[in-house]
# Entry
Amino acid sequence: MPETVELIIGIAALLAVITLTRRFHAWRIKRAYRLIIDDLRAQGALDPESAVPLPYAQRSISKMGIRDHLALALDHLVFDNIVVRLEDDRCYLKDRTV
# Structure
């Protein structure tokens, strides 16, 4: 097989792996969004008075090198103003339409 064809196949395989990896992580974060929102609804955390601490709100040093999708998803939800994190790390669901 010519070297050019091998190079094209290698680049195509690399692009396929990168695309599949990105889709996998997007799927995991989307699943984490639902889990966090459902968890807050189940605990009745819908205003500052009923805010609850979430065990996965803090990043763990023991998971260094492992992608922590729950903590990342919570950061995104806080940034998008869907979840509010109080000073004492308790959280509640601000946007109830999601």
Notes: The chain has a mean pLDDT of 88. The chain has two helices and three strands. The chain has one domain: 3-93.
